[in-house]
Fold:
Amino acid sequence: MHTNVNALFEALWQDYIEMTPSAAKVHQLLSKGDKIINDHIALRTFNISKVNLEVLAAHFESIGYVACGDYKFEAKKLNAKHFEHPDSTQPKVFISELLVEEFSDELQATIKGLIEQVDETATTADNFLYSGRHWDLDANTYESLLAESEYAAWVAALGYRANHFTVSINHLPNFDTIFDVNDALKNAGFLLNAVGGEVKGSPEVLLEQSSTMADKIKVKFSDAVVEIPSCFYEFAIRYPKADGELYTGFVAASADKIFESTNVN
Structure:
């Protein structure tokens, strides 16, 4: 396990920009040479004991992160938790897991078959959180997972890695609102996730979020190379609670729509 927060996030970032070629362009557009502060990253997995949420969380807990909030996504059949570091300048972490037993027997059997191929020691290795896919997968199996769960298909195809990083708009010197950020992105030709509106959340719930739609990249399956959605970039602005401190949690109704940034269509 990593002992250093910065080293872990740097490794996650390097993997992420490889999967998300547009991220560098977004960075350039919004940073104008200033440092971009990462609000949070998100990771996905299945609730099978070998690779469940707790297994991923252990990598962050070993460097001081603590669990701060629980979330349920009934329609997508997911559970999630978010984690924070005692040093509030470090990014938050949002980890979700698919409730495999709530799906068809076929999907359950497929996912269990994939996870059986994961070497137990790989899950505690330093690089597990950005190690990608640990199993063989053919294009047909990907398609059949996709028909039932976009989330299951994404994890099956891309494995373990951050599915997004998040620009903290609070720390962007050149932008005051999420609408300014969205306009700059759209003017530069980026496609935004419009599910439930381009801006998810509101000042009333203390968090506004938007995101690009995931890049499309060519992924190698055992029998074909297929272009599929990879990762996306999110943008978040946080508002102060009654005590004046910025809200650090997440809003399930908004996160539910952000998940759709990796949808195929």
